[in-house]
Amino acid sequence: MPPKSKAAAAAAAEPVSVEDLFTSLHRHIQAGDSLQAAKVADQVLKAAPGDEDAVRCKVVALIKAEKIDEALAAMRAAERLPIDLSYCKAYCYYRQNKLQEALDLLRGQEETVAVLQLESQILYRLGRMNDCMNSFEKLKKFNIDSMDLKINIIAALVAAGRASEVQATMKALKVDLTTRALRDARSFELAYNSACSLIENKKYSEAKEQLDLAKRIGKEELMVEDYSEYDIEYELAPVSAQLAYVQQLQGQPQEAMQTYVYMINTKTPGPNPSSIADTSSLAVATTNLISLRGTKETADSLKKLDQLIEKSTAPNRLQLIESLDFKLSPRQKEALYSARVLLLLHTNKIDQAHELVSALLGIFQDSVFPVLLQAAVHVKEKYVQKAEEVLRQYADKHPENSKGVLLALAQIAANANHFQLAADSLSKIPDIQHMPATVATLVALKERLGDSNAAASVLDSAIQWWKNSMTEDTKLDVFIREAAAFKLGHGRDEEACLLYEELVKSHGSVEALAGLVATAARSNLEKAEQYEKKLKPLPGLKGVNVESLEKTSGARHVEGPQDMKVDVPEEVKKQKAKKRKRKPRYPKGFDPANPGPPPDPERWLPRRERSSYRPKRKDKRAQVRGAQGAVTRETTAANASGSSKGSQTTSSSKAPAANTDQPKASNKSRKKKSRS
């Protein structure tokens, strides 16, 4: 290596001024070279220790270079300096998924645009959607015309269960969802979030249109940026998964299943293959695929689901892969864990299901779904009373969040013939007492308990609710009709008559009028005759003398078949007489002019039953068993008993035969005996 010149050595030894270093730092920042900017910031700090601008530049450059740990180390080194780096520290914690620590650092900070945006993102990941929307409401005051902000606001509304507010919010934010506007904005995420809101509102056809639009615009955007085919599929995996979900909801399970299987199984080509979908989309596709399969292919479904969960030796500890905990919404995580528990129950892995449910009870302490899963495990073990007790305790402790628990308790109790508990559970859900399914179930349960008065009270309460309701889709006529039929069947004729009369006055249907006449005839004959006049006469009954018909004794029962003489019109007789003659069909190659000899009339009989059958002669020659010249035991026994058989009388020949159901020796045993 040649020695350095004295000029180069002098130039290297000469210190660079701070102004020149900041100029170099600015140049690297403008070029987007974050790592080099951080190195220059270090040089500035060596020349001017504690410089606030240099410290901030170094921290921000490390964050942009994805060096989060080094950025935190730089901030810890500057803790003694009078520099407030709380926002940068909170952002680093947010990137490390230390969400609560990040949120604590933002408290007390001035509510700037950056602070409110970071706070809203943290609250969104924590699942605190209402607080997230409060942060977005504060951001609106700054009049920020940012497409990213609009996208995040719509996403937060959908996640918070406020999808009905999305359309009004988009109008307030002046969001244009036309194809041209979305292309100009270069944002397929907006169409995707709008589709999610339509799915929540059960507008599946419109949602599919928005998703198709999002996929088309997304492909155009990514192709302009020179993304490869597999990279495009990776970026648009959430859209593909949502499209398959819409197909699933629209009753197209095969199409949806094909998309899910393709997303899960397809890998990119090359030495290091990877999935064409991100982990959150894989989790959604896997969970939805399991729901479509049901109890089929449970082993394969469990294997696919296990790939999303990290294995841990610690008891009652659950961890999803690649920080999936922070990428999935609470509803998505509940669906994933519920699918795993149900698969374990289907495969009879009860112990593993118990362990998983115990872990879920510790992680989701304020959620209802682990309680439902715990009850499902007890039912699988046939510990129905344990399941009922678990659900009853939760319902008593959390009455405001117990609707699903009470419905599950009612179903389990009804299946176990605990009808009183099932009826009590349903009665504790006030907002469904007027629904047809609830009323029908309660009436059936009360009848099983033998309490017809309580069943009638349930029907009366439902009728009163629908009378007071102002809804357009009223079910009042249905309930009045069912209540009248119920009371008529239980001997409450007057009440049934009043209900039918009310139904006739309000709707005037023929069925209600007929029911009123039949019911009133039991208790109030005058009313029955009054309403009977409103019934239209039946055709064909004018020539029938009702009085003479009533005087007859009625139809008599005659045993055995009887010939009924029916007058057939002449036209029908002529039609029957005119039958078209069809030509006979002959076998192939048969000549009717030369038929040949007639076929044998006994050709359809078995050969043994034909007159020409002659059985084969039996070979009456003696059959000798054993070696040549040997004397068998049977022959010896026959010779020894020959004289005694000849001296028997005719009465001994008529003795009953011995039992023939005796085991027979095999051929091998006979051969061994003969050899001996």
TrEMBL record:
Residues 556-574, 600-612 have a biased composition (Basic and acidic residues). One of its GO terms (biological process) is SRP-dependent cotranslational protein targeting to membrane. It is found in: Cytoplasm; Endoplasmic reticulum. Residues 575-586, 667-676 have a biased composition (Basic residues). SUPFAM superfamilies: TPR-like (SSF48452). Its main location: cytoplasm. Gene3D superfamilies: Tetratricopeptide repeat domain. The keyword Cytoplasm applies. Pfam families: SRP72, SRP_TPR_like. Residues 571-615 form the Signal recognition particle SRP72 subunit RNA-binding domain. Keywords: Cytoplasm, Endoplasmic reticulum, Ribonucleoprotein, Signal recognition particle. Residues 546-676 are annotated as: Disordered. GO terms for cellular component: endoplasmic reticulum; signal recognition particle, endoplasmic reticulum targeting. Residues 641-654 have a biased composition (Low complexity). The keyword Ribonucleoprotein applies. Belongs to the SRP72 family. Component of the signal recognition particle (SRP) complex, a ribonucleoprotein complex that mediates the cotranslational targeting of secretory and membrane proteins to the endoplasmic reticulum (ER). This is Signal recognition particle subunit SRP72. The lineage of its organism: Eukaryota, Viridiplantae, Streptophyta, Embryophyta, Tracheophyta.
